[in-house]
Design brief:
Blueprint lengths: L7 H11 L16 H19 L1 H9 L2 E2 L5 E2 L4 H10 L18 H14 L1 H20 L2 H13 L2 E6 L15 E4 L4 E12 L8 E10 L9 E7 L1 E3 L5 E4 L2 E6 L10 E14 L5 H37 L23 H33 L3 H36 L2 H4 L5 H9 L8 H12 L6 H17 L6 H24 L4 H34 L5 H17 L2 H11 L13
Parallel strand pairs: 3-6, 4-6
Antiparallel strand pairs: 1-2, 4-5, 5-11, 6-7, 7-11, 8-9, 10-11
Helix pairs in contact: 1-2, 1-9, 2-5, 5-6, 5-8, 5-9, 6-7, 6-8, 8-9, 8-10, 8-12, 9-10, 9-16, 9-17, 10-12, 10-13, 10-14, 10-16, 13-16, 14-15, 15-16, 15-17, 15-18, 16-17, 16-18
The chain binds flavin-adenine dinucleotide.
Length: 594
């Protein structure tokens, strides 16, 4: 049986020592997030994840969701009770707005809790996760009336939210969307069309489901510019807040999938369902991006979170399983063989996981903190920089962390040998569940295109130049620190490689767009490595300062960071070389020659 114990110590390290949230009490909500409060949240969250959500993970996988003839959907046994507890304990309210009944705590605190949910039960976690995203989009773009009507119950999780973009003929290319909206003259619209693969489109966890649906208003412009966003409740909501009649939308079927069986992936049919516009006509994508950006950070987090649970179990296995003897002599003479953790190759797999995980955790929490700064800092320059980072690096979090997270989960399986391939050990479920994170919320290939095509050059490259400047400042301030040389040198080198790749793209990507497309995957990975190198250098600095405290945590941090620099950063020049080959080899064959 697999286990999950939230990595509370490492989370504390990132929140208290790396980000030092306690030093930002001037930001709204941060004064309430003292280290003691955060520690309490982490401890309680860890218990909930371990005792309530994780035991349902395998159950959900085995049983899946079931649709009845009346189009209702039953989630796996135990999910409704766990969800009820989640709401009763107020977990969804952590970072929701106080005026909606929320606690108004920093988003980055919510991210730590979300990591625990995503590690312990990814399929379950998608229900509150998407609700939070839908709630944020409504808060960003909805009228006061819509916010008042739906906000508080979505914030608390009593009602769920969904996002409806995909249609059978349009996934990446949303400009092809056919779902239409016809104005009724009373402020409402009739929505007609079919959406597919809608996560949590129907379920038995909440009293109402608030669908956010993209559709084209009849007569609106063609393509992506003619798409509007609507709120379409499953049940109408009366003036007094009670539930009214059923709206004309229902689940037409459930998808059978490779993983996340506990999450209902629905075909949703809208047959003249009544909806209300969120934001302006034809500008739906703008508001939907609020939800999608949040969701993208959440999906990056999923990749990492699944890798974490794989790592914990791989580590247990490697300490316990005895096979062969150490290359340098017997280590456990009392046993018939040594535990496999003595073997360098097993250590390679474990350290690949650990060094990725700790760097990735720092990166995604740092990004969530940027989200807080973007919305809460009183300083316009800080806000601007944070907004630039969110735009530039969200695709990197999404694609790099899911790609590497999936690789890492697979390494966890590999450490288990044949046991990893069997169901009993839980690793094969982790690998299957994790796989979707590379696909939904915009495939990783499309994230890379977004990075090089849209984000990199925006505002004359302001975001990437700020990123370089922040790295340079850190290097200048710390390059003389004794013991930090290795980490600084690694950061310097990869930063120069990223700059080289950036210049190459700026010079060659515009003259031939295929160069940009062909280089995008490797460029994104180069940026991911640079972001992790920056996090590792900063973490190593803290660990060095505290290494004499006697806490072995810091020595382990330094050794893991060393592995990252010596064994993972050397991938950067390979990515750079591939960036610079451009499109020639990739475009040489015509479609028939493949
Ligand atoms: C389990 C699950 C849950 C989901 N949940 C939701 C949900 O809640 N709401 C929702 O709206 N959708 C949801 N989706 C849909 C998901 O977001 C899409 O699958 C995803 O955006 C990709 O679209 P697609 O599958 O149509 O792939 P396609 O767009 O057909 O892409 C196929 C391949 O072509 C590549 N490609 C496509 N266009 C380009 C291009 N211009 N340049 C380069 N490469 C390109 C892609 O990277 C991909 O590798 C879900 C999907 C799944 C499987």
């Amino acid at each position: 049986m697999p286990r999950y114990d939230a990595p509370v110590r490492d989370m504390q390290f990132v929140l208290h020592e790396l980000l030092q949230l306690q030093n930002h009490a001037n930001l709204p909500g941060f004064a309430d997030a003292s280290p003691e409060t955060i520690d309490q949240i982490l401890d309680e969250g860890a218990k909930f994840a371990k005792n309530v959500l994780f035991p349902l993970n395998a159950v959900g996988d085995k049983q899946g969701c079931r649709r009845a003839a009346d189009a209702s959907v039953k989630t796996p046994d135990g999910f409704p009770e766990a969800y009820k507890q989640l709401v009763e304990n107020g977990w969804p309210l952590l970072s929701a707005h106080p005026e909606m009944g929320g606690q108004g705590l920093p988003h980055v605190v919510n991210i730590a809790w979300t990591e625990m949910v995503s590690s312990s039960n990814m399929a379950f976690g998608m229900y509150p996760g998407l609700t939070h995203g839908a709630y944020q989009a409504l808060m960003a773009g909805g009228s006061d009336e819509l916010k008042a009507k739906y906000g508080p119950k979505m914030a608390s999780g009593e009602w769920a939210g969904t996002m409806n973009l995909t249609e059978p003929h349009c996934g990446t290319d949303l400009g092809l969307m056919k779902t239409k909206a016809v104005p009724q003259g009373d402020g409402s619209y009739k929505i007609t069309g079919q959406k597919i693969w809608i996560s949590g489109g129907e379920q038995d966890l909440t009293g109402n489901i608030i669908h956010l649906v993209l559709a084209r208003i009849e007569g609106g412009p063609e393509g992506i510019k003619g798409i509007s966003l609507f709120v379409v409740p499953k049940y109408f909501v009366n003036e007094d807040g009670s539930l009214g009649a059923r709206n004309a939308c229902q689940c037409g079927g459930l998808e059978e999938k490779m993983g996340i069986h506990g999450n209902a992936t629905c075909v949703m049919n809208y047959d003249g369902a009544t909806g209300w516009l969120v934001g302006e006509e034809h500008k739906g994508m703008r508001t939907m991006f609020v939800m999608m950006n949040e969701a993208r950070l959440g999906v990056g987090l999923q990749g990492m979170a699944q890798a974490e649970v794989a790592y914990q179990n791989a580590l247990d296995f490697a300490r316990d399983r005895v096979q062969g003897r150490s290359l340098t002599g017997v280590q456990a003479p009392e046993k018939p063989a040594d535990p496999i953790i003595v073997h360098p190759d097993v250590r390679r797999m474990l350290l690949e996981q650990k060094a990725f995980l700790e760097g990735a955790r720092a990166f995604v929490y740092w990004m969530a903190f940027q989200g807080d700064l973007q919305h809460k800092s009183p300083d316009a320059a800080v806000q601007q920089k944070a907004e630039d980072y969110m735009a530039l690096l969200t695709p990197v979090v999404k694609a790099y962390l899911t790609h590497k997270g999936y690789e890492s989960a697979n390494l966890g399986l590999q450490v288990h040998g044949g046991s990893g391939f069997t169901r009993e050990w839980g690793l094969e479920q982790i690998v299957r569940d994790c796989r979707i994170s590379l696909i939904y919320e915009g495939t990783n290939g499309v994230q890379a295109l977004d990075l090089v095509g849209r984000k990199l050059g925006a505002n004359g490259g302001r975001a990437v130049f700020s990123f370089f400047a922040e790295i340079d400042e850190f290097i200048t301030e710390n390059e003389k620190m004794e013991g930090l040389e290795l980490y600084i040198e690694g950061l310097k080198t990869v930063r120069a490689q990223l700059q080289d790749g950036t210049m190459w793209l700026m010079q060659n990507g515009m003259s031939d767009f295929n160069n940009a497309g062909a280089s995008s995957h490797d460029y994104l990975h180069l940026m991911g490595l640079t972001a992790l190198a920056f996090m590792w250098a900063r973490m190593a600095k803290i660990a060095l300062e505290k290494r004499d405290s006697g806490d072995p945590f810091y020595a382990a941090k330094l050794a893991t960071g060393r592995y990252f620099v010596e064994r993972m950063l050397p991938d950067a020049p390979a990515h750079l070389a591939k960036v610079k080959t451009g499109a020639a080899a990739m475009m040489a064959l015509d479609a028939a020659q493949f």
